[in-house]
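FIELD: query
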Amino acid sequence: MWWLWGALGISSFGAGQVELKQAGDDHVSIEIDGQPFSTLYTARSEMKPFLAPLRTASGIVVTRQWPMETIPGESRDHPHHRGLFIGYGDVSGINFWENDPASKPSAENPQTKGKLLVQKIQISQPGTIVASIDWNAPGQGTVIEEQRTLTFYAKPAGVRMFDVDTTLTAKQDARFGDTKEGFFAIRVADSMAGKNGGVMRNSNGAEGEKSVWGQRADWVDYSGTVAGQKVGILIFDNPGNYNHPTRWHSRDYGLFAANPFGVKEFDPKSGDAGGYDLKTGEHLRFRYRVIIHTGDMPAEKIAAWYSEYAKNGH
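FIELD: result
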């Protein structure tokens, strides 16, 4: 049974505030300073929970809106790419990535689709949503129990920032295979994608898909133009995460993902061991920070933000 505790949470940060509201029994809306920021969709009919759309402080949508909404001219590939989501293409032979009913998994990935089923939602102070999620495999029950905490902030001014803290607990022996398809992902708006002039830049100073894809980095900034304005999305990989700094499955067509498990498809010559074995009862924790900004963001400023993030142990 799906539960929601605390239907309303309000968090004040100086002059700003975060407001979380239950909007029906299958989603929670997030407002910052009285303006819509995003919605967490948790319907049991969905194959995974997701956060969509993501907006700048001025309200510009920086994520693709299909397939949740049909926008004329917007791309319609990869229906499993829904706003911000978590998933993985091979967990003990089950595909928790390309698991939308309309998805057609690629030949190298498992064809059996798993489901991330939200069991409980708790809204708490300050500006925090805690979701209990079962990774269920057909005929096998729950493979992974996940507790995902999303914390939204009203500062710094002019940006939108939130943290995602997720702990995976194996209910049975689980093998995260060595695949590029995962893990912590955002589908950016079409107009800011690399193929339309957008730019990926990582913490090592590399730019563009050929230099960023599959490479290790503390962070990546994916920026471009939406509605005539320069915007960007930053993802920070926490230093405490497994296999930090992570590899990045970031594509010119608009996928933006951190993948801690994949190796062979990113770097066939690497001597690193890909995948991960999570034994029954064991835990694996991942933390990420997402920052949505406008204008050109100097690498020095991003590095300072990241240093502060890492120092404070978020």
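FIELD: remark
Residues 1-15 have pLDDT under 50 and may be disordered.
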